[in-house]
Amino acid sequence: MTSARSALELDCSGWSDWLRARGESPAHAGALFARFQRGRPSTQPLPERVWAAASELREPALRVVDETPSAESSAQKFLLELGDGQSIETVLMEYPGRATVCVSTQAGCAMGCTFCATAQMGFARQLRVGEIVAQVAFVRDLVAARGERLRNLVTMGMGEPLANYEAVIGALDLLCDNRGLGLAPRHVTLNTVGVVPGIVRLADERRPYHLGVSLHGASDEARSRVVPVGKRWPLRELLDSCRYWSERTGRHVFFAWTLIEGVNDGAEDARALVELLRGVPAHVNLIRLNPTAGYDGREPSEHAARTFQETVRAAGLPCTIRRKKGVDVAAGCGQLRTTRLARRDRPARQPATPSERAAAGSSVAKTSAKST
DSSP per residue over 298-334, as a string? Predict the structure, then answer.
């Protein structure tokens, strides 16, 4: 990682090489790594000349283009502008005693999932390691201002993580290094729409992160109508790769199923899902559709969702209905960027200051706590 373009892309070994190239002692590598990854001064003093030179490698600050603190759930969504003008979405979700960041891994997405607002906007480019880490650093500082700590990370933002494998794994390895931010790998979930070669590679490399796989259909025909990538990697190949991953890691796979009224929310769909996952160590996460302007599907009723869940559970599979967070802030992948583009001709409001964001989030968290 010595050819990094920013300080957020360097691990301790990379900092050691950087220091040696400048005639400085590599003993300062740990302090530099900790300073940039943790976002606060290291207990180990640094020579001023070293810090001054290292500061030139800072990642360009992510500019807040828009943000939407939720009034009805403990979620805050941010539209962040990168150095080249591309924009991505990052979400902070807060639960009692824990804060979760949902990061983007690409600007746009090429997977084409019909109900996803990001897929509807197309693919722009891959994110670099530093741009992924920078999103976490942004949220890290936000929760730290409230006296809290960031604990969990999911890659359910814009883009397909396993289509940007090197950068995503590079970022996660940095973020989970105990000499830096020190996220626990068991609190990190890598999500994919079903990129089989990436799942196999994760298994072969025995990466310590959880795996989440989007299904949404229990037959190749049904799934491909919602997830076009299913035509490239049929369900048999996908499930074989999931079994292989589970055998290699000893873990179960989190399978996501977005419930769409009249499409895949019936009892027969639940039974088909059970048959599909027979013999696979699995946990099913049901997600009621978050409607988007580019897709005319509808969210199923609460009764339909509960019936689906009960059918899956009756077959012995763990199954939860994911609590919808931030529906009022367009927290679905790509929705805030789409909304922003739709109103681009209107005068832009000034983004809140960091202290105003922290205050808003604290108020949201208290509201959520009262509601539970």
Answer: -PPPHHHHHHHHHHHHHTT--EEEPPP--GGGT-STT
